[in-house]
Amino acid sequence: SLFDVNPASIVRALERNPRIESASVQLFPAAVRVSVRERRPYVLLNVGMLLEVDSVGTILPPLARGLIADRPVVTGLRVPTRAPGARVLTARFSEILRLVARLEAPDVGLLPEISEIVATDPRWLVLRTSRDQIPIFIDPERATPRCLKALAATLRDLRERDRRVLGVDARYRGQVIVRCAPDSLDQRPATRDK
Q: Which residue, 56, 113, 136, 189, could crosslink 127 as a Cys pair with Cβ 3.0–4.6 Å?
């Protein structure tokens, strides 16, 4: 019977699942409408196994064995728990989440090109491109939208010129330094102002 439906208990039951961000229940004369908003995988955290984590650091339970989101993999971080529903609250992980948000911004658009974010050094992060595994050294505190736009333009320019790149350094204010392989140089190394 619709008279026995308790919307609050349905919402509480749904929100116990860490994949559910929010839920609402509406009662109509002859129907019940349940609306659910799921948490979106934001990054994958490599802790011996891959954990999906949302944009606020909540660890999500696996959907199915072998099925995983196409998001950057964060390596080199230690997390105190792996339990679904727990939150990763370290300052270093918060820096990474902010950087991912900036990489994903429409005016930057670099996130689809990044396959891995290495966080082993406390001073900087290393981003690896998915296509050619170029290491990009970046200081998360200096990774402004302007800096990341310059980085995106630099990568586009290098690909248009078909350069083989050994590394990119975007840790310094106002410049992106590119180290090309000797066999792909036909002029001076590319530097782009931020």
A: 136
